[in-house]
Amino acid sequence: MLTATGLAALAATTAAVPASAAAARFRPSAPPLSGPFPVGRAHLHLVDRTRRDPWLPGSYRELMISVCYPARHGGGEPARVFSPRFGDWLDGEGGIEGIPPGSVAWDDVGTPARMNATPLTALGRRPVLLATPGHFTTRDAWSCVVQDLASRGFVTVTVDHTYEVRVEFPDGRFPDPLADTMPADPYPWLRKTLRCWSDDSSTVLTAMEVLASGGDPGEGEAPPPRGLGRLIDPARIGVLGAFTGGGLGAMETAHRDERVRAVVTGDVGLSWGEERREPIVSFHETGLRQPLMAIRVPEEDPYWAAFTAACDHPVRERALPGAGVWSLADLQWLLPDIGRAIGNPGLFAEQLGTIEPRVSVRLQREWIAEFFARRLH
């Protein structure tokens, strides 16, 4: 069985880094934004009282989401990639093998966004892009793309899939994962998680509709920034996902929720493992009705060709030469910086590939923004 404790489960077996390399805490910073607008970030706590939690059936489903949006200049505290509690967890129990505890200020990884900055409502209603994380992955794992899309005029939303990864709630809860073990036969578990992700995504899209109508979908701990709802266009919805199954989650959401109008997926496969004995999804023969762009399609997937032939629109496939399995996430820029800072510049080279991180980030940002701008005009 594969046991995943946050990002630690995604780490390769590497030689330990000498403790002397951890003398000072390194504070990484995300790449600068490429769009013309400053970015605000807000957190919302959602409770879906129409469904029970699939991992804790005695409770309603609770979610934490982050919304990034075009904002006015100034205002708000700098936004960090990880919350303080999650950062502390990454420095201890959830640490990545090969990075010594105390060597990285995980709770202080900077981004260009500012918390609860005033929305730039003069732009009018903007397309909404929902980013779905994959297995055992925090909603903050693709911030370099999500925030950049907001700087280009999109409203972007990310969601944590509660009980698959550590989630910090406003009341201080930081519950242990309940679904962080993949069984020897993973297919039933994989299908259950995909259904859960899709249901979570639908909950988030409904919350965006409430915001757009002037309401507050949150639980009241802190209201959303004033005017945020006036930026949201619930008629122009896109989903994107990559890394540890997030791309398949985006496709599952598009298949099941008719509000979605366009999809971007990365590192996606329709089956699992080396044997790839059967497809995970039900739409491998019917395709998707929405326009789809796929980055880094696995050549060995036996179901991909039939799926793309069945889609309503030609699938736009993008290669990312030299990329690795961790390239479609913040790990692309974060880990090389950390490796150099702790004296191990080759850390995770196999997983990150040979592509220059700045090139990888730039191409992802450009391709995704261009696709959604065209499809959600």
What is the overall pLDDT average? 91
Largest sheet: 10 strands, mixed
Secondary-structure element series: EEEEHEEHEEHEHEEHEHHH
CATH superfamily: Alpha/Beta hydrolase fold, catalytic domain
State the low-pLDDT regions, or none. Answer: 1-22
The CATH class is Alpha Beta
State the CATH topology.
Answer: Rossmann fold
Q: Proportion of β residues?
A: 15-25%
Distance between the termini: 45 Å
Q: Identify the CATH architecture.
A: 3-Layer(aba) Sandwich
Number of strands: 12
Description:
With 377 residues, the protein is α/β, with parallel strands linked by helices. It has a single domain, classed as Alpha/Beta hydrolase fold, catalytic domain (Rossmann fold, 3-Layer(aba) Sandwich). It has helices spanning 84-90, 143-151, 187-212, 246-256, 304-310, 331-341, 349-352, 357-375, and strands spanning 2-3, 39-52, 60-70, 78-80, 110-115, 126-132, 155-159, 181-182, 232-241, 260-266, 292-295, 316-318. The strands form two sheets. The protein has a ten-stranded mixed β-sheet, sandwiched between helices. The protein has a two-stranded antiparallel ribbon with strand order 1-8. Helix 5 (304-310) links the parallel strand 11 and strand 12 (316-318). Helix 2 crosses helix 8 and helix 3 crosses helix 4 (246-256). The longest helix has 26 residues, at 187-212. The protein is globular. Residues 1-21 form the signal peptide. One of its GO terms (biological process) is lipid catabolic process.
